[in-house]
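Researcher: We're teaching a course module on how sequence relates to structure. For the next exercise, students receive a sequence and then see the predicted structure as C-alpha cells, so they can try to spot secondary structure elements on their own. Here is the exercise chain.
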Amino acid sequence: MTERLCCARVVYDYPRDELIGTVLATGATFVTSDPKQMAEWLFAAGVRHDQVFMPDTGDKIALHHRLMQLGREESGK
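Model: And here is the predicted structure for the students to work with:
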C-alpha cells in the first residue's frame, strides 16, 4: 500500500463563501472563491493533486481536476 503525503489543506469558509488553502510545509495561505485559482496557486507552491486534503464539496472536484490538468501539462502528456 502506498501512503499519500498531505502537503496542503483546503477548507471552505461558509460565511465568507471562500476557500482557504494552506501549504503545510511553509504555512503559505491562499484565499479565493475559485477552486481552479486555488489549484493553480497550490500547484505553483509544489503541491500535486494527491497531496491535498479537502472535505467533500463540489469545489473539491474542480480543484483536483485542475491540479490533474496542470500535472499532465507539466509532464507533457
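Model: If you want an answer key for the exercise: Residues 58-75 form the longest helix (18 residues). The longest strand covers residues 8-13.
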